[in-house]
Amino acid sequence: MSYILIADDNKDITDILSVYVKKEGYEPLIATDGVMAEDMYFKNEPVAVLLDVMMPFKDGYEVCKSIRQKSSVPIILITARGEDYDKIMGLDIGADDYIVKPFSPSEVMARLRAVLRRINRDEISKDSDSVLKVNNMEVNLEEYSFMIDGRKIPLTKKEIETMWTLAGNPNKVFTRDNLLDSLWGYDYYGDSRTVDSHIKRLRAKIDSVEHPAWSIKTIWGVGYKFAINEEDI
């Protein structure tokens, strides 16, 4: 039996999501606080996590960070806080999607199906060679690690996937919609501001180490590309 972990301290929400999760063919695991959610995840290894942000003892952001240290399981954050900052922070720490309360259970299930489809698609299409090297940069998609000049740069799961996508297609321009589709899935309800904020944070991290031979370039009015400076290679 495949499990879906539902973590929320509101019983009405866990009850209704449990019904919908069962309709999808999964067995729900219910956690009513952050500590319980973390414990249940590592004991049962569910295939996805529906995670409330505001929970007792340990909030959803902390739980998400803890899970991301050891797993790339799909995580959808659910919260009453809908400001852009909260959404961006959730995605930045490794969440795959973000849903604002009040929500439709059908929408939650649609988002869940989209995330699971994307994960399955990525696993099927993944090449046996999961290491990408460009000049002094290395992206390891199996270990989810990123290095420049042998120095490990702590990137989130989504940031590593962004580098894999861009660097794997040097000088190809990706529109913001391209990146939303590729990295968050076509069912994601975000907008171009999500991509811009994501790239801004990613640049701030990778620019901590010099990389004159390559860069992430902004193509104004269009999107972004991984640019290679041939003179420095």
Walkthrough of the structure:
With 233 residues, the protein is an alpha/beta fold. Helices cover 42% and strands 22% of the residues. The chain is built from eight helices and twelve strands. The chain has helices at residues 11-23, 34-44, 60-68, 84-92, 105-125, 157-167, 176-184, 192-206, and strands at residues 3-7, 27-31, 48-52, 75-79, 97-100, 131-134, 137-140, 145-148, 151-152, 174-175, 214-219, 223-228. The strands form three sheets. A five-stranded parallel β-sheet has the order 2-1-3-4-5, sandwiched between helices. The longest helix has 21 residues, at 105-125.
> What topology, given as strand order, has the largest sheet?
2-1-3-4-5
What is the oligomer described by this structure?
Answer: single chain
β-strand percent reads 15-25%
| Biggest beta sheet attributes | 5 strands, parallel
Shape: elongated
Distance between the termini: 51 Å
Helix/strand-derived category reads alpha/beta
How much helical structure, as a percent, in the residues?
40-55%
Total DSSP helices? 8
Radius of gyration: 18 Å
Which regions are unreliable across 5 or more consecutive residues at pLDDT < 50?
123-128
H and E order: EHEHEHEHEHEEEEHEHHEE
E-strand count: 12
Average pLDDT, all residues? 82
